[in-house]
Amino acid sequence: MRPSRLAVLGATTAAVALTGGLLTGVPGAEAATAAVTVESHEIDVHVGPDGAQTCTVVYDLYRPATATSQTPAPAILTTNGFGGSKADQADLGQAFAERGYVVLSYSGLGFGGSDCKISLDDPDYDGKAAQQLVTYLGGGAAANDGSRIDYVRTDATAHDGVAMAHDPRVGMIGGSYGGQVQLAVAGIDPRVDAIVPIITWNDLSYSLAPNNTSFTTADGQGVRYGTPGSEKVGWTSLFFGVGIADGIQHASTDPSRNVGCPNFADQACVAKAQMDALGYPTQDTLDFARHASVSSYVDRIRIPTLLVQGQNDTLFNLQEATATYRALRAQGTPVKMIWQSWGHSGGGTPAPG
């Protein structure tokens, strides 16, 4: 679900300190000084394995007055947790725009007015959508109203050392569902400069039907298992209820979201029905969940990563972030990790005052 705004903002403060490359060149980043304008836009993206499906993404663009074509600024790309929308990142967007960053906050596919169905942060869908927003920030695409961006700093080369067109200086941050999408785009787009996935998963099949007694990874440090565990019925039912409700709420923007499996990729309904009937996932369900998991493509990620995971979390536990951390570190990807008290199951620290 969605971490609190204060919690995400606190994690972000730590994140920018540890992924310092993103901060480079923002004068006075430590002080909130810049006047900010906020505009809402829509942009069409093309997703799916062959890019044949068109989705309209809604987003808010936070622009500091200091960001101009003569003095371009680095950018932050962020999106919502499951069941949320672009509005959830309003505090973050305002705070960092006041500090000189351009911030693009968008509603993920299937949420908050964005078209198409929920695909569980699959790289072929959510990853490709985010990749095209990176291109937009780099000036290589136009919003549906024809407007373009020419005030975001660009880089000469991406993280793989290759010069790429429309390469903005951009980092990503977000929690839970808004965390996994960062890993999805990092696996396909080296133009992203740093990511901060907060309380998210390593292997969704483990998250939703765990078995801690039959891990099969070669190093014994991952969470992929040989024998499926029992379905977390409470969590899976909650997610389906929230996803379906969002589809109904925004039916006027994209009625096709509710045709067939309501507001979910068809395989999601098949998987839910199958797990409810058997109590555990079949191989088809495992394959579906793992395709939308960083454990399946972590070897393609070379972008500096800060993982933040919660001790109080019965959905994505500490073992998931640890598995991702160890895999990234073993292949030489720059990575750090924070453990903190709060997670999907509560435990947040009250705000001061």
Structural commentary:
This protein is α/β, with parallel strands linked by helices. The chain has 2 domains: 5-202 and 302-340, Alpha/Beta hydrolase fold, catalytic domain (Rossmann fold); 208-289, no CATH class. The protein contains 9 helices and 8 strands. It has helices spanning 5-18, 90-98, 123-137, 177-186, 204-208, 233-249, 266-278, 283-291, 318-330; strands spanning 36-47, 53-64, 75-79, 102-106, 170-175, 194-198, 305-310, 335-340. It has an 8-stranded mixed beta sheet, with helices on both faces. Helix 3 (123-137) packs across helix 4. The chain is globular and about 60 Å long.
Which terms summarize this structure?
disordered N terminus; 353 residues; eight-stranded mixed sheet; Rossmann fold; alpha/beta
Low-confidence stretches: 2-21
CATH class of the largest domain: Alpha Beta
Major sheet strand order: 1-2-4-3-5-6-7-8
Enumerate how many helices there are, as a single number.
9
* Share of β-strand residues: 15-25%
Please give the largest β-sheet: 8 strands, mixed
Q: What is the helix content?
A: 25-40%
Query: Total number of β-strand segments?
Result: 8
> What name does CATH use for the topology of the largest domain?
Rossmann fold
- End-to-end C-alpha gap: 26 Å
Order of helices and strands: HEEEHEHEHEHHHHEHE
Number of domains: 2
Mean residue pLDDT: 89
What structural class is derived from the secondary structure elements?
Answer: alpha/beta
